[in-house]
Write a structure and sequence with these properties.
By secondary structure, this protein is mainly β. It is built from one helix and 29 strands. It has one helix spanning about 5-30, and strands at about 35, 40-45, 50-55, 60-65, 70-80, 85-90, 95-100, 105-110, 115-120, 125-130, 135-140, 145-150, 155, 160, 165-170, 175-180, 185-190, 195-200, 205-210, 220-225, 235-240, 245-250, 255-260, 265-270, 275-280, 285-290, 295-300, 305-310, 315-320. The longest helix has 27 residues, at about 5-30.
Length: about 325
């Protein structure tokens, strides 16, 4: 006979079971999806429509194109020179593939992954900048600590840039190119028309990546900080009007890459084991997202609903779904 007491007990345990099951289902739904690369994914490039994701696998010497709408591989290209970094042009049809140790720049038509051109470089390369309107290519070399500039394939005089240049960024509507010098613990501004350095700005140790803030008046510098005491990563903000360093924000440990949120209000920082989301206005931590082992690069979808993280040891790109409400400042 089912008494009121027995009924209450059964109802209680049913509710407990339901809540536990719901928790498990929610946890499962939050688990990131994977793009299996069967190789060592590194640099990423995502087209402006959020349709195709391009993945460089340096050690495996492969270039992968993934159709995010069809959730299927759209192309695979063997790259004997080992792709180090990817740069997608604004036309979404031209992909520049920088092959560091093999000293090669490849131009690839996408999404077909058809090699259009190759250009042999005189030394190993770390980063690339392109001014399409001037047919100008600039690349840095940590091997020689030089900045090399070409008009088409014709070289211009080299510039001794500093110790271990690892990233380049053009300042919009100017002739300035910013260079991150890792071991010199500085960023350098080069006037490309004059062919000379015009500014050196000391920053936190080991500047690794450069971004422009949405307003175009600040340079964001991701500093890995492995030479700092204590070792800590930071984001340094440089005022571009006065060319001086300003605020610094904490960025966890062993930061590798960073990306702006779609609306320009957040900054996604990729560390050794997670993604830290900062407010671009205050530097406050809004969220932390656990990711895969040995992450290398991060890209944010144009609609702001996904973060793509290449994880070398996992041989996969992790797709983290983003909650826009959770990313709002409290």
């Amino acid at each position: 006979m089912l008494t009121r007491r027995n009924f209450s007990v059964r109802l209680f345990w049913c509710l407990v079971f339901f809540l536990c099951a719901s928790t498990v289902l929610c946890a499962c739904s939050r688990r990131p999806k994977l793009i299996e690369t069967e190789a060592d994914p590194g640099s990423l490039a995502l087209d402006a429509r959020g349709r195709y994701l391009y993945v460089a696998c340096e050690g495996a010497e492969k270039l992968l194109a993934w159709d995010l709408h069809q959730r299927a591989r759209a192309g695979l290209m063997e790259v004997e020179t080992g792709p180090l970094r990817l740069y997608l042009e604004r036309d979404n049809r031209t992909l520049r593939v920088l092959c560091g140790e093999e000293r090669m720049l490849m131009t690839v038509v996408v999404p077909d992954l058809k090699c259009q051109d190759t250009f042999a470089l005189p030394d190993s390369c770390t980063a690339l900048a392109v001014r399409p309107e001037k047919q100008q290519f600039i690349y840095s070399s940590a091997e020689t600590d030089l900045l090399r500039t070409y008009i088409g394939k014709n070289p211009l005089p080299v510039i001794e840039i500093g110790m271990d240049p690892v990233d380049l960024l053009l300042q919009p509507d100017t002739d300035l190119l910013w260079v991150a010098n890792d071991r010199a613990h500085e960023v350098v501004a080069v006037n490309l028309e004059q062919g000379q350095i015009v500014t050196r700005v000391p920053v936190w140790p080991n500047p690794r990546r450069l971004l422009m803030d949405p307003m175009g008046d600040k340079l964001l510098v991701l500093c890995r900080g492995q030479d700092a005491q204590p070792s800590e990563s930071k984001v340094h903000l440089i005022d571009l009007n006065y060319r001086i360093a300003g605020l610094t924000w904490k960025a966890g440990q062993d930061a590798r890459d960073f990306a702006l949120g779609t609306r320009g209000s957040t900054l996604f920082i990729l560390t050794a084991d997670k993604v830290i989301v900062l407010s671009l206005r205050t530097g406050a931590v809004l969220m932390e997202i656990k990711t895969g082992r040995d992450p290398q690069a991060i890209a944010i979808s144009p609609d702001g609903k996904a973060a793509y993280v290449s994880c070398r040891e996992e041989q996969a790109v992790f797709i983290h779904r983003l909650d826009s409400q959770a990313l709002k400042e409290k």
